[in-house]
Design brief:
The complex is a heterodimer of chains A (228) and B (738).
Chain A: E1 2-7, H1 14-24, E2 28-33, E3 44-47, H2 67-77, E4 82-85, H3 87-94, E5 101-103, E6 111-119, E7 137-144, E8 148-150, H4 153-161, E9 165-170, E10 189-193, E11 199-202, H5 220-225
Parallel strand pairs in A: 1-2, 1-3, 3-4, 4-11
Antiparallel strand pairs in A: 5-8, 6-7, 6-9, 9-10, 10-11
Chain B: H1 2-6, H2 12-17, H3 22-32, H4 38-47, H5 50-53, H6 58-61, E1 71-73, E2 80-85, E3 88-96, H7 98-103, H8 105-121, E4 126-136, H9 144-162, E5 166-173, E6 182-192, E7 207-212, H10 222-225, H11 246-261, E8 265-270, H12 275-287, E9 290-294, H13 307-312, E10 318-323, H14 328-337, E11 341-349, E12 353-358, E13 361-367, H15 368-371, H16 388-392, H17 405-413, H18 422-425, E14 436-438, E15 445-448, E16 455-461, H19 464-469, H20 471-487, E17 492-501, H21 508-528, E18 532-538, E19 542-543, E20 546-547, E21 551-560, E22 577-581, H22 592-598, H23 610-625, E23 629-634, H24 639-650, E24 656-658, H25 666-671, E25 678-682, H26 686-696, E26 700-706, E27 710-713, E28 717-720, H27 721-730, H28 733-736
Helix pairs in contact in B: 8-9, 8-11, 9-11, 11-14, 20-21, 20-23, 23-26
Classes of the chains: A alpha/beta (228), B alpha+beta (738).
Chain lengths: 228, 738
C-alpha cells in the first residue's frame, strides 16, 4: 500500500501527511512533485494542506493547473482513492473532482482550533471512513481562512440525497449548532465525497491528530481506514 | 564614474539627512581617504546605523555570558546555535520589527516574521516554532484596535503560509506604548550539526549568487528609519516599510534547504536590513575576503534603478550565497525548480574591498573593515532617572483594597494583561508540522523532535513594569521567569536570545536603564548557567520624546530529554494536593493589582534568589521525571489568586478548595507578586515532594485540594470555574470588538 502526497509550491502539510501515512497507517509514502506526471505507483493520493501558489487569486485555483493534477484526475476517474485535506479540499473543488466551493470564513479571520465532526454516513461509505461508524463524533483541528462550504441549493439537495455529505461540524455532544460550525459552512458541511465515493475532501486536519502524543488520534482512523 | 554624475553631491548636510552625524561623516572620509560618493555614503549610513552596528549597545552586550558546553555559535552570526545531542542542534533568535509595525501593522509584523525565519534557515535549519512578544498602547487608545488587529493578522498571514507553527508569546497593553508598539518575533529552527551554514565568504574566485525575489525600490533605508525617533511625519515613512510575500519565502526555504543538502554552498546570508549592502559586507568581513559585485546581473523588479537603490533596497525574500566554483548550474537547477530567481552577481576576491560595478563602471570601492568594525562605538553617558526615587517611595500601605477579594479577582482575571489570548492565537496556525505537544496558553509551549525522544520548550518573558522600577533586577527576573516557565513543562533551559527594546540612548536615563538591564540579564544567566546566544537591540523606541517602558524581552529554549515527561499547567484529578513552592506572600510593588486597581506604577520590587530558582527548576524537572508531579504553573502577574484561577481553566475543568490565612494584608496574599513561586499538584507523591523541597531549601506549603466546580478560598472568596472562564475568555472583547 503506497500513499502519494502531492507537493505543490506552497504546500505545507505535505510532510505531516507523509508522516501520518507512514506512522499512523504504517504504509509506504512518497512525495509527488506538482510539475511531474508520474504517480509513482501510488495506491492512494493525498492533496495536503497549505497555501498552494500562495492562495493568490483564490485558494486552490492555480494548483488545479499543475501537470500532476491531470494524472490525479485520471486516477480518480479510474476509481482510485483521493483525499484532499484543507487546501487539498479547496483544490479538489477547484478542479471539479468535488462539487461546491470553499469561501472565506464567516468571521473573516484565519481560524486554528479544535472542532467536532459527526460522521454522517455508514462506515465504509468511502475508502477513508471504513473505521468511522455513522453518528460517531470525532475531534479534529482546523486551520484555515477559506473553509465556508458553499453550493447552490439544488446541488446541496443532491449531496444530501445521495449521501455525499461525510462530515458535519457539531458540538461535543454531536449536535449541529451555530457555534459548533466555525466557518459558517452551509448545512454545517465539513467534508464531502463525490458520486463514485472514491474522492473525499474535508477542511479539518486528520493529519494533525493521528497520535496520542499530540493529545488526539481521531485522525488516524482516516489513514488507517484506506489501508486494507 | 558615470553614475556619480546623476547622484546628488555628498556633503555633511546630505550625510545628516541619512542619519550620519558630522563627526561620523568626518571619520568616514578619513577611513577611505576621500569623500564617499552618494551610494557609498548610503552604505555607510546603513552599516553604521544603530540597527546594524549596535554602536550604542555593543560595549554593554560584550558583558553577556555567551559560551557553554552546548554552544556551537554565539552572537555575531545570523542566529545562535546550541547542540541538543543526537547530532542535532537548535538555532534561534529574536528580533524586533517595532517601527515598521507601527507605521503599517500588517506588513510590518509580517516582514518581521519573514525576516527572523530567514535568519534561521540561512543557517541550514528548518524553522520549527515561532513566538512573538507584543506590546501595545492603552486598550482604549484610538489606534490600539487597528494596530493589534493588523499585527496579529500579519504574523498569522506570514507564519501560517510558511507552515511554521506559532506556538507562544506574550501580549501586553500599557499607555507607554501608545506611540511605539513592540513586535518582537522569535524563530526556533532545527539543524543537523554537520549541516550548519554560516554567512561567510571564502575561496577566492568562488561565485557570489543572488537567489529569491527580484529587487525593487521597497524598504530603502529601513534600517536607518529603525534607528531614529518617531515624530509627526513618521506616517509619511510608510513607503519605507517592505511588503512581504510569504509564498515566495516558503519556496525560498524549501529551495535553500534542498540546495544545502549537496556540497554546493560555501556561505549564505539573507538580505534583511540594509539588503545587498549588509549581506555583501558582512560575508566579506567574516570571511576576511573581498567581494566584487556586478549590479547589471541583479534581478530587478523595476526599470531604471540606480546603484544607490539597488544597494539599499530591503526587498524581502532574497538571499546572497557564495557557491563552490563549478556548482553554479546545479544551484540554478534547484532554484529554477522552485521558480525562483538565481543569478551569479559577483565573485569572492582577494584583498579586503567591496567593489561594485554598474554599466561597466566602478560605482563603489570601499574597504570592508571600516564599514563593520570601523563603526563608531559609543559609551554614552548614563544617569539614574530622577523620578525613580519617587516611584520607589510610593506608599502602598495607604492604598485601599478597592473591593472584595472576589470582585478584585474577577477584575484582574478579565483585565487586558491577564485575560485569555485565545482571540490572538486562534489566528495563528499552531499545529502545523504536527509537533506541538503543548500549544499556546500555558507556561511554555512544547514541540517534540521527530525521530528522537526529545522535545523543546519555548517561551518569551519580560515584565516591563518591574524593569522600569529596577532595570537590573527586573531584567534578571525576566530570565528567571523564562527558566521557571520551561521548568513548569519539565524542561532544562539551554540558552536565551534577547530583544532589548528601549528609548533614545542619547538620553542618559535611557542608557542607564539599558546598561542596568544588560547587567541583570548577565547576572541571571551566569547564575542559572544559561548563555546568551543571540539577540537584537531596538533603541529609539520613542515618539515625540516619550519613551516606552524598558522592555528587554527574553526568549528561552529548554530541552526535555524524554517527551513522555512533559509537564502540564492545569489541575488534573479530584483529590490531588494543591501545593505552593516558594513564598506565600508577594509584593504589590509594580504589580498588576496596582496597575489595574489604582492605575499606578511604583514601590520597591522583591529580589529574586537565583540559587533558589535553579533548585526550583531541578525540583520541577525531577518531579515530572519520576511522576510525582501532576501539574505545575508559574505564579506571575496577578499573584496567587490569578494563578490558581488559571490552574482551574487550563486543566480538566476541576476547581479547588484552598485554605491559607493572610499574614498581613489580604491583597498581598491573593494578588501580590514575587519571583520563585510555582503552584504544583501531586497525589501520593506530595510527601516525597515535600522532602525534596526541604532538602533544596524551597518553601513548601499545602494550599488545599483539587475538586468541585468552583475555586473556593476559605473565608476569602468562592467563584465557579464557569464564571472564571467567562471572565477570562471575554477580557479582550472590549479591545478587539470580536
Amino acid at each position: 500500500m503506497k500513499f502519494g502526497v502531492v507537493v505543490f509550491p506552497g504546500s505545507n502539510c505535505d510532510h505531516d501527511c507523509y508522516y501520518a501515512a507512514s506512522h499512523a497507517a504504517g504504509a509506504e509514502a512518497c512525495f509527488l512533485w506538482h510539475k511531474d506526471r508520474d504517480l509513482k505507483g501510488s495506491d492512494v493520493i493525498i492533496l495536503p494542506g497549505g497555501f498552494s501558489y500562495g492562495d493568490y487569486l483564490r485558494s486552490g485555483a492555480m494548483a488545479r493547473f499543475s501537470p500532476i493534477m491531470e494524472e490525479v484526475i485520471a486516477f480518480a476517474n479510474r476509481g482510485g482513492p483521493v483525499i484532499g485535506i484543507c487546501n487539498g479540499f479547496q483544490i479538489l473543488t477547484e478542479s471539479g473532482l468535488l462539487p461546491g466551493a470553499l469561501m472565506r470564513n464567516k468571521h473573516l479571520k484565519f481560524l486554528c482550533r479544535d472542532v467536532f465532526l459527526r460522521a454522517e454516513q455508514d462506515a465504509g461509505r468511502t475508502p477513508f471512513t471504513r473505521n468511522v461508524e455513522k453518528g460517531r463524533v470525532l475531534r479534529m483541528p482546523i486551520a484555515h481562512n477559506d473553509g465556508c462550504y458553499f453550493a447552490e441549493p439544488h446541488l446541496l439537495d443532491r449531496l444530501e440525497g445521495e449521501g455525499q455529505v461525510i462530515f458535519r461540524y457539531v458540538n461535543a455532544a454531536g449536535e449541529i449548532t451555530e457555534i459548533g460550525n466555525p466557518n459558517g459552512s452551509l448545512h454545517a458541511i465539513a467534508g464531502i465525497t463525490n458520486e463514485k465515493r472514491n474522492v473525499v475532501g474535508l477542511m479539518p486536519h486528520p493529519d494533525r491528530c493521528a497520535e496520542e502524543l499530540l493529545g488526539n488520534h481521531d485522525g488516524a482512523l482516516l489513514f488507517q481506514g484506506v489501508v486494507p | 564614474m558615470t553614475n556619480a554624475t546623476r547622484e546628488p553631491e555628498v556633503t555633511a548636510a546630505v550625510a545628516r539627512e541619512m542619519g550620519v552625524t558630522e563627526d561620523e561623516f568626518r571619520r568616514i572620509c578619513e577611513f577611505i581617504g576621500r569623500t564617499p560618493n552618494y551610494t557609498e555614503l548610503g552604505m555607510f549610513a546603513v552599516m553604521w546605523s544603530e540597527h546594524c552596528s549596535y554602536k550604542s549597545s555593543r560595549i554593554h552586550l560584550k558583558t553577556f555570558p555567551t559560551t557553554g558546553a552546548r554552544v556551537l555559535k554565539g552572537p555575531g552570526e545570523n542566529a545562535g546555535i546550541v547542540s541538543i545531542g543526537d547530532g542535532l542542534a537548535v538555532v534561534f533568535k529574536m528580533e524586533s520589527h517595532n517601527h515598521p509595525s507601527f507605521i503599517e501593522p500588517y506588513q510590518g509584523a509580517a516582514t518581521g516574521v519573514g525576516g527572523i525565519m530567514r535568519d534561521i534557515f540561512t543557517m541550514g535549519a528548518r524553522p520549527i516554532a515561532n513566538l512573538n512578544s507584543l506590546s501595545f498602547g492603552a486598550p482604549d487608545h484610538p489606534k490600539t484596535r487597528y494596530l493589534l488587529g493588523g499585527v496579529v493578522a500579519g504574523i498569522g498571514g506570514y507564519g501560517n503560509c510558511m507552515g511554521v507553527p506559532t506556538v507562544g508569546g506574550e501580549l501586553r497593553f500599557n499607555p507607554a506604548y501608545n506611540g511605539n508598539i513592540l513586535v518582537n518575533a522569535m524563530t526556533v529552527g532545527l539543524v543537523p550539526e554537520e549541516k550548519i551554514f554560516l554567512g561567510q565568504a571564502s575561496g577566492v574566485g568562488n561565485p557570489v549568487m543572488y537567489v529569491g525575489s527580484r529587487t525593487g525600490r521597497d524598504g530603502i533605508h529601513g534600517a536607518t528609519m529603525a534607528s531614529g525617533e518617531f515624530d509627526q511625519q513618521t506616517e509619511e515613512k510608510r513607503p519605507t516599510v517592505q511588503v512581504g510575500d510569504p509564498f515566495t519565502e516558503k519556496l525560498l526555504l524549501e529551495a535553500c534547504l534542498e540546495a544545502m543538502k549537496g556540497d554546493h554552498i560555501v556561505g549564505i546570508q539573507d538580505m534583511g536590513a540594509a539588503g545587498l549592502t549588509c549581506s555583501t559586507v558582512e560575508m566579506a568581513d567574516r570571511g576576511e575576503t573581498g567581494i566584487l559585485l556586478d549590479l547589471d546581473r541583479v534581478p530587478l523588479r523595476e526599470e531604471g534603478m540606480v546603484p544607490y537603490e539597488m544597494m539599499l533596497s530591503e526587498s524581502q525574500e532574497r538571499m546572497l550565497l557564495v557557491a563552490q566554483k563549478g556548482h553554479e548550474e546545479a544551484l540554478r537547477q534547484i532554484f529554477e525548480k522552485w521558480d525562483l530567481q538565481c543569478a551569479v552577481v559577483g565573485e569572492v576576491t582577494a584583498g579586503d574591498r567591496v567593489v561594485v560595478t554598474h554599466q561597466g563602471q566602478v560605482v563603489v570601492d570601499l574597504p570592508v573593515n571600516p564599514l563593520t568594525s570601523g563603526a563608531p562605538l559609543y559609551d554614552r553617558p548614563r544617569a539614574e532617572p530622577a523620578n525613580l526615587r519617587e516611584l520607589h517611595d510610593l506608599d502602598l500601605a495607604s492604598l485601599d483594597a478597592g473591593g472584595s477579594p472576589a470582585d478584585t479577582l474577577v477584575k484582574l482575571l478579565g483585565s487586558p494583561n491577564l485575560c485569555s489570548r485565545r482571540w490572538v492565537w486562534t489566528q495563528y496556525d499552531h499545529h502545523v508540522q504536527t509537533n506541538t505537544v503543548r500549544g499556546p496558553g500555558g507556561d511554555a509551549a512544547v514541540v517534540r523532535i521527530k525521530g528522537t525522544r526529545k522535545a523543546l520548550a519555548v517561551t518569551s518573558d519580560v515584565n516591563p513594569r518591574l524593569v522600569a522600577l529596577d532595570p537590573e533586577e527586573g531584567a534578571a527576573q525576566a530570565v528567571a521567569e523564562a527558566a521557571r516557565n520551561v521548568a513548569c513543562v519539565g524542561a532544562a533551559p539551554l540558552a536565551i536570545t534577547d530583544c532589548l527594546n528601549f528609548g533614545n540612548p542619547e538620553k542618559p536615563e535611557i542608557m542607564w536603564q539599558f546598561e542596568r538591564a544588560v547587567a541583570g540579564i548577565g547576572r541571571a544567566c551566569r547564575a542559572l548557567g544559561v548563555p546568551v546566544i543571540s539577540g537584537n537591540v531596538s533603541l529609539y523606541d520613542e515618539t515625540e520624546a516619550k519613551g516606552i517602558l524598558p522592555t528587554p524581552t527574553v526568549g528561552l529554549v529548554g530541552l526535555i530529554d524524554d517527551v513522555a515527561h512533559v509537564g502540564r499547567a492545569g489541575f488534573q484529578d479530584e483529590g490531588d494536593h494543591v501545593l505552593l513552592l516558594g513564598e506565600a506572600t508577594g509584593s504589590l510593588a509594580g504589580s498588576e493589582w496596582l496597575h489595574v486597581l489604582h492605575g499606578k506604577l511604583g514601590g520597591r520590587i522583591p529580589k529574586v534568589d537565583l540559587e533558589r530558582e535553579k533548585a526550583l527548576g531541578e525540583l520541577l524537572r525531577q518531579g515530572f521525571r519520576d511522576g510525582t508531579l501532576k501539574s505545575a504553573h508559574d505564579v506571575s502577574e496577578g499573584g496567587l489568586a490569578v494563578a490558581l484561577a488559571e490552574c482551574c481553566l487550563l486543566g480538566s475543568g476541576s476547581g479547588a478548595s484552598i485554605k491559607l490565612d493572610p499574614i498581613d494584608r489580604v491583597d498581598s496574599l491573593l494578588f501580590g507578586e514575587a519571583p520563585g513561586r510555582v503552584i504544583v499538584t501531586a497525589a501520593a507523591g506530595a510527601k516525597k515532594l515535600e522532602k525534596a523541597a526541604a532538602k533544596l531549601g524551597i518553601p513548601f506549603r499545602k494550599l488545599g485540594k483539587v475538586g468541585g466546580d468552583s475555586l473556593d478560598w476559605k473565608g476569602l472568596f468562592r467563584l465557579s470555574v464557569a464564571t472564571l472562564r467567562d471572565v477570562h475568555e471575554g477580557g479582550l472583547r472590549a479591545i478587539t470588538g470580536a
